[in-house]
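Below is a filled-in request sheet from our internal design queue. Each sheet records the structural input a requester submitted and the sequence that came back. We keep these sheets so that new team members can see what a complete request looks like end to end.

REQUESTER: design group, bay 2
PRIORITY: normal
MODE: inverse folding
CHAIN LENGTH: 416
BACKBONE (tokenized):
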């Protein structure tokens, strides 16, 4: 096995045609989690070159990175100088991701320092660059770190917001390394966009609702719908991969939190309305993908409603829920705000969609046909996006991420 410092040669035949990803690993305790990200990348057909810092090797050894990636590992620029690795690695990459990215690494990248192989690679990369920070909350919130993050984002890098949760020791807060499975989705979405380095939603705040509201009847029952939230989560992931600050209003979902997304859990339509109005105050775009219950029980039974022999079941009186989409489209709390709605229809799909678009007053309406075996819970979707300007954009049957990217393409056009 090659020792640290011996870069060696890759198997060009095996790597041909595979997306080339550089996984930079800096010296944080979360370095061990990058092994899972590396495994997902290699198993999905990516050619991954791991470039750790010297500090990172205190947490995970070079032998592990070599075995998992199939490439020798080096930390400094003096190995195999004739191959000019400090230039070639970055030049040949389709994407560079630094995971975890410590406060020290963010500072070096922002100021163009180059004292090892990874920082040299960052300077020579002309492909999309993604940073996945992981550190204690105080370090993440320090003005120096925030200024470095702002600098990197301004230059076009995607800096994923760290997660909130358990840190090292007993500390809890923002700064946790995002789940490797969700970071993998970020990489996949960035590469799926053709490797375009520009972040066309950078500096934008977008709000996405997902899932389905539930209106309680009694302590054990509710009125709800079949929405899984997968389309809304796809929208959130896509927006984050395009550089947006994303607030995801999640109504009764059971999905992993997308990397770099702020999650606000909600239950009922009234709770969702309150969350939307609050989050939309400074949002550039609001996408209402959640399935909102049109009605709720007029009264809530504090005890379980029980059947009684010989008696008819009790009647339930329903009242209307607030029309959140129409309200937010009519108020537009921020000038130039783009509002997107969804119309789940079972018949006369286009006719009903056009009528709803005019009635709600939103800029775009995503219309699709739904049913017990259509759309809900599926990984695929098919839709037509109607515009208030009379436009129609059909999206053929395919992954929900494809529909999400089409929606954001249309939103970006209107924001511009």
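RETURNED SEQUENCE:
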């Amino acid at each position: 096995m090659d020792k640290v410092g011996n870069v060696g040669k890759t198997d060009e035949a095996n790597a041909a045609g595979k997306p080339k990803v550089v996984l930079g690993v800096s010296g944080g305790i979360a370095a061990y989690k990058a092994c899972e990200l590396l495994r997902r990348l290699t198993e999905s057909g990516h050619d991954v070159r791991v470039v750790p810092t010297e500090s990172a090797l205190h947490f995970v050894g070079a032998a592990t990175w070599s075995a998992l990636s199939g490439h020798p590992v080096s930390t400094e620029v003096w190995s195999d100088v004739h191959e000019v690795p400090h230039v070639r690695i970055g030049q040949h990459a389709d994407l560079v991701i630094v995971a975890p990215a410590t406060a020290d690494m963010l500072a070096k990248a922002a100021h163009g320092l180059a004292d090892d192989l990874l920082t040299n690679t960052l300077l020579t990369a002309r492909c999309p660059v993604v940073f996945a920070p992981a550190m204690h909350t105080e370090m993440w919130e320090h003005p120096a770190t925030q200024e470095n993050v702002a600098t990197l984002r301004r230059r076009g890098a995607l800096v994923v917001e760290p997660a909130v949760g358990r840190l090292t020791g007993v500390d809890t807060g923002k700064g946790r390394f995002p789940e490797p499975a969700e970071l993998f989705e970020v990489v996949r979405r960035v590469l799926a966009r053709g490797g375009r380095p520009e972040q066309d939603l950078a500096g934008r705040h977008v709000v996405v609702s997902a899932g389905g509201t539930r209106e309680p009847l009694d302590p054990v029952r509710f009125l709800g719908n079949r929405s899984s939230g997968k389309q809304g989560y796809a929208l959130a992931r896509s927006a984050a991969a395009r550089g947006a600050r994303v607030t995801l209003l999640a109504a009764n979902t059971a999905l992993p939190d997308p990397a770099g997304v702020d999650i606000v859990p909600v239950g009922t339509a009234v709770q969702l309305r309150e969350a939307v109005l609050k989050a939309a105050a400074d949002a550039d775009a609001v996408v209402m993908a959640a399935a909102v219950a049109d009605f709720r029980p007029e009264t809530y039974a504090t005890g379980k409603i029980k059947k009684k022999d010989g008696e008819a079941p009790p009647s339930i009186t329903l009242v209307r829920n607030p029309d959140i989409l129409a309200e937010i489209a009519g108020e537009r709390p921020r000038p130039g705000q783009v509002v997107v709605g969804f119309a789940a229809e079972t018949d006369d799909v286009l006719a009903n969609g056009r009528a709803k678009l005019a009635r709600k007053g939103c800029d775009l309406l995503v219309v699709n046909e739904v049913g017990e075996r259509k759309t809900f819970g599926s990984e695929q979707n098919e839709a037509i996006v109607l515009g208030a300007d009379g436009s129609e954009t059909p999206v053929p049957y395919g992954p929900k991420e494809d529909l999400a990217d089409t929606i954001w393409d249309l939103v970006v056009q209107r924001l511009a």
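SHEET NOTES:
- The first helix runs from residue 12 to 15.
- The radius of gyration is 24 Å.
FILED BY: M.R.
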